[in-house]
Amino acid sequence: MSAIINVSNLSKQYRELKAVNNISFTVNAGDIYGFLGQNGAGKSTTIRMLLTLIEPTAGNIELFGKNLYSHRKEILRQIGAVIEKPDLYKYLTAYENLSLFAKMSGATVTEKKLNDQLEQVGLSKRAHSKVKTFSQGMKQRLGIAIALIHDPQLIILDEPTNGLDPQGIADIRNLILHLSRHQGKTILVSSHLLHEIELIANRMLIIDKGEKVMEGTVAELVDPANTIVHLEVTNAREMMAWLQNSRWKAGLQAQEQNKNVILLRMNKAQVPELTTELVNAGANIMSLQPQNSLESYFLSLTTENRHVDTFTN
């Protein structure tokens, strides 16, 4: 499988702030590649470097097998992007906006092509409505239509569901899936909405404070063999002592500060055995929740949410 994006040891320094610190990742042809991180993690900075909007301090970027800076114009013709909220002319109609941006991009398009593009993003019935009357979700879909008008191979979307209601989020999600499955587009989408990325991405990168912490497939990152169990008991001190001398010791992760919650990592299939042994050991269980969602995994990796008092084996 050919690599569309190949980033090596990329960094961006702003005086004392290292916004991106030595990250490397690869996006393959046909991927819906999720780029995950909390606000301020370095996602938008990385994307701006991919689009040559800012220069990296160090590192190398190749797109379509070519160096980004020595083949800039050639490469950017093959990319469509929406960075945060799209810049639109609110007193023009959707059709007029799309036509104008098509001319600016140098694309030769027919009236049918423009109408087909608006149909694809679900705006054909509002083609001749002024953009000032659009919801934020409609503006986002029009922005994506503009990004697609020159038929790019790679689409980059930076937080495309920011500020949208549930229906708007679902519309963008379905559009991304359509572009991947039916048009064969390669898509890099950044977000802090973990559940949405879990629904659409086949591969993803997690960054935290500018540093790469994990890259892999969704299946790898939410592997049931690495389930985190949140155990809440009223006799936490007693049960922690018991666990440290039991066969479950290797899976002990932490006891949350000022709470009666103990965290264990294990295969999800072992949870019934753990429950039985805890009851027999006298645990006063208030709740026992296995979690192996992407959100649980993400929160276990990012520094702002790491649990304290981690136990070592």
UniProtKB/TrEMBL annotation:
**InterPro entries referenced in this protein's UniProt entry, alphabetically:** AAA+_ATPase, ABC_transporter-like_ATP-bd, ABC_transporter-like_CS, P-loop_NTPase
Q: What Gene Ontology molecular-function terms does this entry list?
A: ATP binding; ATP hydrolysis activity
Under PROSITE patterns, the record lists:
ABC_TRANSPORTER_1, ABC_TRANSPORTER_2
Looking at the record, the residues that make up the ABC transporter domain are: 5-234
Q: Does the keyword tRNA processing apply?
A: no
Keyword annotations: ATP-binding, Nucleotide-binding, Transport
Keyword check for Nucleotide-binding: yes
The entry sums up its family as follows:
Belongs to the ABC transporter superfamily.
The record's annotation in PANTHER family points to: ABC TRANSPORTER, ATP-BINDING PROTEIN
User: Know the name of this protein?
Assistant: Bacitracin ABC transporter ATP-binding protein
